[in-house]
Amino acid sequence: MAKFNFYLGATASSWLLAILIIAAELYGPFKNLLKSTFSHHWIGKGIIITIVFLAFGFLLRNKESIANLSDKKLAWHSILGSLIVIFLFYIMEFFK
Amino acid sequence: MRDFVLFAHIILGLALIAFPILILLYLNKRSKWLKPLSIITAAISWLLLLPSGKLYITFYPATKTLVKAGSWPWAHDVIMETKEHWGLLLPVIATVAAGLVFTGKAKDSKKWWVLLIILSALLGVMGRIIKIGALK
């Protein structure tokens, strides 16, 4: 039995980071909530994705795939997807 | 204080390029120090958040004002905003890579180490662009 699924922890935390960024930029009260809770929105995002990485990695330790997608592929594409989404989002925000 | 944090930021960032290169060079040779070095690299990626956070939260606001007032406002709006958040994924990537080495999937860890090297180098270049942006 696996003790931790690094792939699914990374999958969950990478997509959550992209969601947190977009939500905080588009909805001011959410960014303020992160600031007031964690002293800074960046610290808030960091703490939340770390907790999610650990929680999903532990809770899904026996899963090897989700919806017929292997955890290995899912994690790789999620990380790359998250990096691309974050970059494109800020380009779009700049030209808005 | 600022200099110490800045040097720590740069040195730890460079370690996230150098150590994965070493790991990749010896990945197929199953060296006995591969696992400890992988763990040290992952630990550095988490530790790096401390100087990064200190620089970003305490010292960057003054630089941000300069960048935004200059002719390269995108250096903050696009490059810095992206950099500060991509940096949060460095420890995740390094931990996955180290976890794979530790669980006997060293071959699968290869592309994660490569991604760590590329991302760390890119973050360094982005930092340089922001610095130039503050002088424009």
Could you walk me through the main structural features you see in this protein, from its secondary elements to its overall organization?
The complex is a heterodimer of chains A (96) and B (136). Chain A has 4 helices and 2 strands, in the order αααββα. Chain A is mainly α. Chain A has one domain. A two-stranded antiparallel ribbon of chain A has the order 1-2. In chain A, β1 and β2 form a beta hairpin. In chain A, α1 runs antiparallel to α3, α1 packs parallel to α4 and α2 packs across α3. The longest helix of chain A is centred in the C-terminal third of the chain and has 25 residues. In chain A, 33% of the residues are buried. Chain B is mostly helical. Chain B has one domain. Chain B is built from 5 helices and no strands. The model of chain B has no long low-confidence stretch (mean pLDDT 95). Chains A and B meet through α1, α3 and α4 of A and α3, α4 and α5 of B.
